[in-house]
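Let us work through a complete example step by step.
Step 1: write down the sequence.
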Amino acid sequence: MRRIVVNGVGRETRVAILEGNRLMEYYMERPEADRIVGNIYRGRVENVLPGMQAAFVDIGTGKNAFLYIDDCLSPGEEGKNKPAINQVVTQGQEIVVQVSKEPFGTKGARVTKQVSLPGRYGVFMPEVDYIGVSRRIQQESERTRLRNIAAAALQPGEGAIIRTLADGASQEELTADLAFLRARWQRAWNEMKERKSPVLVHRDMDLISRVARDMLSEDVEELVVDSRACYQEIRELLAHYRPSLTDRVKLHSGPADLFVHYGVESEIEKALRRKVWLKNGGYLVIDQTEAMTVFDVNTGKFTGNHDLEETVVKTNVEACREIARQLRLRRIGGIIIIDFIDMKQDEHRARVLEAMSQELRKDRTKTHLLGFTKLGLLEMTRKKEHQTLSDTLLRSCPSCEGRGHILSEETLLGELERELIAHGRDDRHEYAAVEVHPHLLAFFERHQEELTQASGLDVRWQSNEALDQKSYRITQLGSK
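Step 2: predict the structure and record it as tokens.
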């Protein structure tokens, strides 16, 4: 059973996707957050870098966007011999691009010339003569039917990609969807084409609208929302996209907070932890970096009932389910390495690989399972589409600067000792006052005598709560 829970009361809009009452995906929009993925801009090429086969494009967001050569080519052209980037774009040229990836850290947004407007059943491409069908629609007769409907609905020079939700849709539904998207594009372009670059041509829908368009389908039992305004917005959108699903939208009117009622708040808190427990007593340790995420699988409290090898395999299979869930929930992308508990037999590795493959099929984000390395590590990749959950909800610790560790008391003591010895070489210095955080005061006081002997200074301590626990401050030096 799938359920969508929407919290629209307050300054943040939050959406939780539940499967079997377990939180699988979580999305959030804040009023001050400027989400730009899906936005279409008329920008100006600032720099062309032939050595990188890329260009930087000013789209007016304060940080130049990155345009790679593959994102300049039409679908079907990627595998052919690529032209040089300076044959496709030139410095100072005005081009229409769409943001495909949010900016991350110091990197600007990634953009593409393959402009598209997503609808419920199709993705309309106003400048690409191409028709594609989702790979998840596997029946060949249905793929042919949908392709023929799209070909009849499109005008010369236009293209479309038929989405998975179009499986079984009528000719009227798909044709109306594409016509609606064409009208949106023409209206947006006519309003903006006379304005000076860089300029926003089209803004993608907000989170509530995308939920109604992309996530609510026949396999969703209900969509529960706690805001009457959001409730009305979703029902109005469904009246256009899918009237038959309107009755599945429910307004939550109970006294309990909606996310607390469905256990979402506690699941979000768990999704920010480094350690995740499995149902059978095993656990995962998750370490994320900008380029790579590593999952370490451990048996933990699970000892099994038979032999060790069977215990290991059961834990690894259970870990596959939880890892696939964590990838979706934490919005993890890039290179992913999984260190399963060592398995001796090839058939057991094959069993775990198949379990991982089955779980990843439920993921709407593109994944690529590469298999086990010679060291027994499972390699895979997942498309980076959004900021991770931790990047959205957390900020780096000002003390440890995101490392997760701070200098130990012993290390700080050594640094202070060396600094005091240097000051003690100056004959004018007989006394030193040192400020430390209250939590460190007792430790430093225990070593006062040895610091005095090493430096020749009379060392005195001062407590200062404003200091962090990874530093100290020498506030006074002079004669007694």
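Step 3: interpret the result. Residues 96 and 165 are 28 Å apart (CA to CA).
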